[in-house]
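Next comes a single protein record:
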Amino acid sequence: MLKYFLSFIYIFFFNLISYNYSFSYNEDDLQKLLKYNECVNCDLSEADLRKINLVGANLEGSNLDKANLWRANLENANLKNCSFVGANLRRVNLQNTNLDNSSFRWAIIRNALMDGATAKNADFRKAGIKKTSFKNVILCNSNMKYGIDNSGCEKND
């Protein structure tokens, strides 16, 4: 019995030590973004993108969960269908960006610029939004902390 118990302990600790804890971004995806300013359906989760200039970038469908985008410039970017769950979006420039169908749950959005952005069907529930400019933002059918916001819906939406 002791033999089986020691074998179990050995296998358990060996697996624990050798387990790869890497749940972060794909390095090839990051290099593609930096080189071409485009990375569709990429894994950039937990990437350090502080102060990066991505004006006009196309990141459609990408995973940016827990990414650090502090002071990043994403003006005029295509961020449709992106996930920003738990991301740091402090002082980020999202002016005139396409945020349709994107998720910002548990993201920290403070002192950000979102003027002129479209966020149709976006999910901002549980996001920490403070001191952020939402001038002329289209929030049609967007989930906010206080419920669904249809402030920018057109009659055809």
